[in-house]
Specification:
The protein is of the alpha/beta class. 33% of the residues lie in helices and 26% in strands.
Length: 261
Amino acid sequence: MVSAGGAEGTRPRRARGVARPPGPADVAVIAAMPVEIGYFLDLLTSVRRYETERLKIVEGMLGAKVVVVATSGLGRARARAAAELVVAGHRPSWLISAGFAGALDLGLQRNDVLLADEVVDLDGRRFAIDVKLGDHRGRIRTGRLLTVDAIARTAAEKAELARSSGALAVDMETFALAELSASRNLRFVSMRVISDDATADLPPEIASLTTRSGSYQVGAALRALWHRPAAIKDFWRLHAQSQSAADTLATYLAGVIERLG
């Protein structure tokens, strides 16, 4: 298991009129984009929302567990910065990297769930993750996850990443969170829902549609539609796939959190 201990730091700034959290969180969840985690947030009760200078944080109850969720933006640096703030302010027992991933393995289909038992990067660094959470039901698989610094857009890129890394899927954040967990003695889980399979080419405009913070760029989408009107079909398809993947993530993430000790 990736393990780690408390972090030094300042508790995140509370929004005016919001009471302090009731105590240390049981679980902290870091997701890159709001679309990934929105359905899961709908499952929380007794919700508190407040902001730091860098990100918005949502805290609530999932059953008897206190869960805090931060949406970091894309990439390792943003994910680590968000996790450092949450760990310092909420002192969770568990840190979870949650969101979407692209399949590298031909056996993974959209809406399959990958619980990583190892996360690696292209420099050959790796962290083992203990995922002994009982019987995995449904579409959950375990295996290696690769973290990279740019979207793997084409089937050819995915095939090369699969060959060079031996990973089942690829994301842009998990390695940084595993690294932080190891340095802080935190228990760690990575849960990724497959949003595009290994044979799918994403639209060429995909990299320009979101900012590094994970927000949607309307101007970029309009320019894409002006230059390639057929892109509207791709965008609607991606939207539908994202909603389906987010719904799957909410269901399986809630189930995993309920089983954490």
